[in-house]
Amino acid sequence: MSTIFVTSSGTDIGKTYVSALLIRQLREKGKPVRALKPLVSGLDEASFAGSDPAALLAALGETVAYENAGLVSRWRYKAALSPDMAAAREGQTIDFVELVNHCLDTARDDETLVIEGVGGLMVPLDERHTVLDWMLELKRLQLRSLLVVGSYLGTISHTLTTLDVMRRNDLEPRAIVVSESLSAPVPLEETVETIRRFAKLDTIALPRNGEPDLAGLFV
To answer: What is the tally of structural domains in the chain?
Structure first.
């Protein structure tokens, strides 16, 4: 079984774009793919067409419709907040064990499962668990990961801090993808080169609307 977890140093950086691109490229190589973004906030029917679940459905070749959101996103909240806060706004809490089991149950031996996380690596999911805890519970799936970061001012520190936490927890990412941020003060390639030098890890530049080969990292 093959499971790829796409995580990040923060929110609104490019995880969904990377996840969708990876899904499309794997399918183009003839690989059967499933995808999950189990937790999503800031979602409503009126804006669904531009949402993260919609992008994943399109990449999978599924009909992009609000009623199909559950195919990729089981826990959906209206408030654009961290999952724990968004759930609380609706009088709910996220069952961490159920979240983990949902991912485990979706994984198949003959398919690649792409899981997109929510926010950054240390985003809270409930009173005790973060995305990091979620990834640790999925290590039994022979988990591989991608770390998606931006090119904004400050990203080098954020990236290396996130990478350090991942390495301390035996979650070395296959690569770092640097997604070009709007109005970044430094050229993308300079930021990529600096991150690559300190991370000592494959670091890939992702220009706006770019399509670098991500599937090649995993097949």
So the answer is: 1
d(CA 116, CA 145): 10
| Residue whose entry in the numeric block shows the structure tokens 């949902």 | 102
Farthest CA pair distance, the chain: 46
42 φψ region: left (φ > 0), alpha (ψ -120 to 50), beta (else): left
Rounded CA-CA distance 81/27 in Å is 32
Confidence class of residue 183 from pLDDT cuts 50, 70 and 90? Answer: confident
Residue 200 is a catalytic residue: no
Which residues are registered as beta bridge partners of 193? none
Q: Which of 29, 37, 139, 200 is catalytic?
A: 37
Q: What is the pLDDT of residues 31-75, one digit of tens each?
A: 999 999 999 999 999 999 999 999 999 999 999 999 999 999 999
Query: Which CATH number characterizes residue 101's domain?
Result: 3.40.50.300
